[in-house]
Amino acid sequence: MPFRFAEEKDLPALLALTNAAFQVERFFKLEDRLNPVTLRELFEKGRFLLFEENGIMAASIYLEEHGERFYLGLLSVDPSRQKTGLGTRMMGAAEEFARERGAHFMDLKLVNLRAELPTIYTKLGYVVTGTETFPADSMPVSQPCHFICMTKELGHR
To answer: Taking Cα atoms as reference points, which of 47, 3, 128 lies closest to residue 120?
Structure first.
């Protein structure tokens, strides 16, 4: 599959893809999921793995390395490509990259209001490890929420 890591020139398309993919969260988020400033901060702190098809960005996932642990976030699949297995393939590619870098665990956080997500990630081998407070200053929301923290032991192939 045509995976690669994002470069500076990809940021506008990455911003558009992420915000389109996260439109489903507009029932509780009062703004787009990402803005150019936040995207730039993430780009400088971690890496975005991309999947392109015919030169068009179809999916992305954010990865941040912390020694033997990786943090995964912002899994974004073009809305026209959702429910095709592309998200699962992105997860697999992200996990494989983390393994290659020597990681033993992949961590992620989900907003509890996305009730369908824990079941999906459980099927991919993730387990709930706890909860965290949703930082009130990170993004305006229309209802109370918190994070569900999940992790997966990666093992090595």
So the answer is: 128
Q: Which CATH superfamily is domain 3-153 in?
A: Gcn5-related N-acetyltransferase (GNAT) (3.40.630.30)
Beta partners for residue 70, in sequence order: 65, 106
Please state whether beta strands 127-133 and 146-153 pair in parallel, antiparallel, or not at all (unpaired).
Answer: antiparallel
Percent of the chain having pLDDT more than 70?
98
Question: Could you tell me which residues come within 8 angstroms of residue 48 by beta carbon, excluding any fewer than 6 positions away?
Answer: 5, 6, 10, 14, 42, 60, 61, 62, 63, 74
Residues 8-33 pLDDT 10s: 999 999 999 999 999 999 999 888 99
Angle at 80 between CA 78 and CA 81, to 5 degrees: 65
- Against a cut of 0.90, is the pTM above it? yes
For the chain, the domains span 3-153
